[in-house]
Input
Amino acid sequence: MKITEPINGIFKIEVPFERIYTAVFAVRLAEGYLLIDCATTAEDVDTHILPALRELGFADPPRALLLTHNHGDHAGGAARLQEHFPTMPIYAAEPPKSLPYLEIGEGDLLFDRLQVLHLPGHTRRSVGYLHLPSATLISGDCLQQRGVDKYVNGVRYPALYLQSISRLRTLPLRCILASHDYVPLGCCAVGAAEIAAYLDECEQDIAKDQ
Output
């Protein structure tokens, strides 16, 4: 487990997943914090996420769990988190398996600082979260570049993916934080030049197959 703070008030917890990792993000609020995604298993929650929250000084339950999509390496720990935090609501655009949730969609503003962006491509209803104070996009798996490790093509809907990339080019982003260390540009882009290169790489890898 590795904990960093790539953007002030946004903490990244790297939870091991096969030969790579899946990021869980803790976002500080004026009162408390949010979690974005929750890794793969109950063991991930117990051995990585909860110790990380203690290390960060987050003693209270999260105000909510926000999911980028319902794949197991991002949503698999949700049931275990709810066992630990029974009052914690789950916000999602895609139903998490066998759990109650609050449905979110394009443009929703959560906790006065995170705007929901519908960014299909990886899945049909994938979302990213735009952290308005820092203009940071927490993109989950919405931006894939050339994939990661054995997962070389995670784009199920290429046409929608290209539309999502085009849309992101119109936004005044200052940072992108992805959930995996994608090839070749990694998990983070800061500033206009890096963000443009990041989106170019995502687009070029898909466009060549069209």
